[in-house]
Amino acid sequence: MGFAIRADQERNDDVGGSNPQNLLLLHPIGSWPRPVATPSAQAVARMPMEAPTAIPDQPRVPAEVRQLPKAPQLPLGLKLLVGVQQGSTVLTGGLVATALVIYSWTVYLDKTVARSFQHLESLKVSTQQVTTANETLKHSMAQQAESPASGLQPLEPKRAIFVSPAPPRQLVKPDLVEPKVQPPMPHPLGY
Fold first, then answer.
1. CA–CA separation, 5 vs 24, rounded Å?
2. Buried b (16+ CB within 10 A) or exposed e, 118-135
3. 3 has which bridge partners?
4. Is the pTM of this model over 0.70?
5. Is the per-residue pLDDT at 48 higher than 60?
6. What is the largest CA-CA distance in the chain?
7. What is the CA radius of gyration of the chain?
């Protein structure tokens, strides 16, 4: 007895939709020495469905385990090219990261310079305003001093007071006295 499974992609689960091309027979290895032909759809439909039973008179043969083929060794030149590719990938990543850091630093520096320039311009405007206000104040004070209502009198050379210079003094030499030597401190005063 054998079991068959459908290997098609149709979603039709009836037996009549199966073709011999998409039916696979399942059987233990070594249980049937002769090849079994794939049954037709009508033969599969007529097969009675029985519960699987073990065949006690036939010994079970263990499945043959074959070792997968090993991957072929790459030639030295190809290994070298793979290493160069990996190294260049790492180098490219580092260069991209460095370029991004330099770009962001440049943008930050440009913004800082622009802010400082604006601050300098506002300081220049403030300086001009202060200078203008100072000169305006000086002019108004001069006009008030020149007006007769202020009570100020113009400078006359006759009323100027001249003071004669004092006679020069003698230089006093300081005494050359040795300074007292202080005893050393027993502990520091502080830090």
1. 5
2. eeeeeeeeeeeeeeeeee
3. 26
4. no
5. no
6. 155
7. 56
